[in-house]
Amino acid sequence: MTHTIRTPEDQDEPALLRDQFRQLLRYRALLATGVALGLLGGAFLALGGEDTYTATGEVQVRSATADPFATGASADKGINIGSERQTAVSDTVGTLAARTLAKKGDKVRPRALLGDLQVTNPPNTLTLRFAYTTTDPALAKKRAAALADAYLEIRRQRTEGSIDNMADGYRAQLEPLVEQRDRLEERAAGSTVDDTDAARANLVVAISELNRKIVELKALDTTPGYLNKEPVTPTRPTGAGLPLLLGLGGVVGLALGLLLSWVRLVFDPAVRSPRELVRSLGAPLLGTLPRERGSAGPSLLAIGRNGSRLAEEYRAVAFRLAYDPAFARARRLLVTAPRGDNAAAAAAAANLAAAFAEMGREVLLVEADLRTPALAARLGSAARGSRPRWAAPGDGEGGWPAHSRAHVEVPGSGAFTLIAGRPVDNVPRALTSAPVGHILSEGDRSGAVVIVLAPPVLSYADAVALVDRVEGVMIVCDPREVHRGDLERIREVIGASGGTVLGALLHPARGRRARREARREARRDSHKDGHKKPGRRRGSGSRPGDPGPRAGHDGDPGTDGTTGDPTETLGLRSPFGTPAGRP
């Protein structure tokens, strides 16, 4: 079976956007914080500030015209509304309006007066809208009216000034023409020959034209505009109300929360999606275990429970492994976690063993966790002291794995053999011993499957010591608790050891309470191991089947020069980090 690992670049854009949005929704605390800050800001703006009132007046601007009722007359002739808007907010208008208000007892500086003024121009109109905002509604009305009147007055003065300047220019041109005409008339009166008629006629025509222009200028209607809408005293405060500000605050807060979530996502070293896990690990995703409420019990076996979604997922993973060429060639599987708690990997190993037994395979489950073995205790009454006939007897009498076999019954599914872990003095020597190699070789039998449960691969090197003989490795992890760098190192370590990562199995995330209890239990186990008395002798409280003392036990130095104190175990401590539950 060929696994195709699709990277995020192979996905279509909508799928990537959906995946990124789901990743942002993982940080619900940041989203809730952003929304809460936005709502608080909106409430503060709505309730904390003073109410403001806006009085509005509208002025229609017109140009000077000789006959507004003539055909073709236009009121917008020569008007640039943008320039008129700038004139309305100029210091000239502000000074005149401040002077007018001072006469009425309202003393205000022109700059302060113009600071609360807003002049806008509705599209496609010659109208200027004067909006003045202040905390006093009557004052807002009075100042808006003063500013509009000041604008009209300034514009009227400028129009009349332009007319007077043009008229004075025409008069300046007219005076020499009149003097020249008078001289010609005097010369004509003293002479009998009228040779100046043509020149005098031309002067009369020019004088008449200038007089006509002066008359037309004086006849212009210099009305600068009309106050179409007089400012009135506002009765309601302006601005957004409490509901609108709360809504805007919520939207802005949500945007802030998304921004914070995006920043957190960028700098988050954890695996952000299953596709990223597949890319970092370099192996396919075998399955994702569902979360089942109320499924916890004295036994961790989900196989055998009717109607269990968890059991069906384990069966699907087992079938997928059964048809994987890499697994079918050796029929050996090493199950481990990246680091920390190994409970999920233990549950996966036991349920996969039960699923393969249900398929008619002869399954041997080896617990290679010789530091904190707990699989037999978690299986409870399902594990018994007998073993199937096909399982070969254990070697290495007097130590692990001898006398560690148990028969595990799976209701309605079959049975498998468990070799439970047991604390030993030298873990690396036990894992690389000949008896362990003989046990793992049982996977070469036709129809047999060997599943090895190893400690977290980045906490101890125990899994690495077994990879070359097991070859196929399955990583059991929670994507929210494992880092991308950890997965990349796992891939490199297993590949360098001669093994192959067959895939990853994702288990549901545990709550904070469960994580705290797991850490507390790990510290408690470490504390017990640190205070355990060395060297239990046969007959002094040892359990049945205990092989008793051997070389290197009971505080006496063994062949390797170590003592029998289990707290002084010479293990292959992994250089990747501190093991879970150990200080």
TrEMBL record:
PANTHER family assigned: FERRIC ENTEROBACTIN TRANSPORT PROTEIN FEPE, TYROSINE-PROTEIN KINASE
Cross-referenced InterPro entries: Bact_polysacc_biosynth/exp, P-loop_NTPase
Alphabetic keyword roster: Coiled coil, Membrane, Transmembrane, Transmembrane helix
Record region (Disordered): 505-583
Superkingdom classification of source: Bacteria
Protein name: Lipopolysaccharide biosynthesis protein
Organism: Streptomyces halstedii
Coiled coil: 167-220
Low complexity: compositionally biased ranges: 541-550
Signal sequence coordinates: none
Compositionally biased region (Basic and acidic residues): 518-528
